[in-house]
Fold this protein.
Amino acid sequence: MTSPWPTDSPTSAQRAAFADAEPRPYWPQTLAQRDPHQPLEQVIECDLCIIGGGYTGLWAALHAKQLAPEREVVMLEATRCGAGASSRNGGFLNYSLTHGIENGRARFPHELQALERLGTRNYEELLTDLAGHGIDAELETTGELDVAVSAAQAAELEQGARVLQEFGQRAELLDQTAIQAEVRSPLYRGGLWLQSGAAIVNPAKLADGLRVAALNRGLRIFEHSRVRRLQRGRDGVDAITDAGVVHAAKVLVATSAYAPLVPAI
């Protein structure tokens, strides 16, 4: 089979077609303009200080306020909420915690049943949160389509369909006629449509919707407030920024791939 990728250099016309492209993420540009939250410029106290305003931090804030509405929760964000990986991904949702059942079976065979159950529950509760908090993240529960370009790959998809169905997922195997009806490509010889546990969203609107929902439940957010270090306080932990300090009973570090404030993590 010949390669579907071009081998020639781009023509002048092709280069002109993307001459006005900008090297910045697309998704944040779909958000309405808003003023940033004020930076921390004082010394304050709280029950829980969350460092990082992405998905992890924002969902943690919502969860913390749901468990204890009286809990004082403060968030410190180095730039703007959702500005990191939370608005720079493809927007694909998938229930699997192991990047697919076969991958999970190869690495965690004795825990796979539990991992599949937890992954499905996590996906379902994500959808419940979107509905319950009124977050318009442009959710589309379209499922996920894998395609085969060879007979060997088509056979792998047959096995994949059986495994997905074994673990309770809705999966439909598509023959060449069916896949051509979905995507008219001469390369595709079959497909596997995972109809449950997979969707797409606008990732920036998801992050911003979480921010608004958390604010509505009493979260205090300080943006452009990079935490320089953590140190033990008299009754907890002190989060120290360039212009302020948060004395917190507990701290959640939700900085993902950014440089950790705690060497152990």
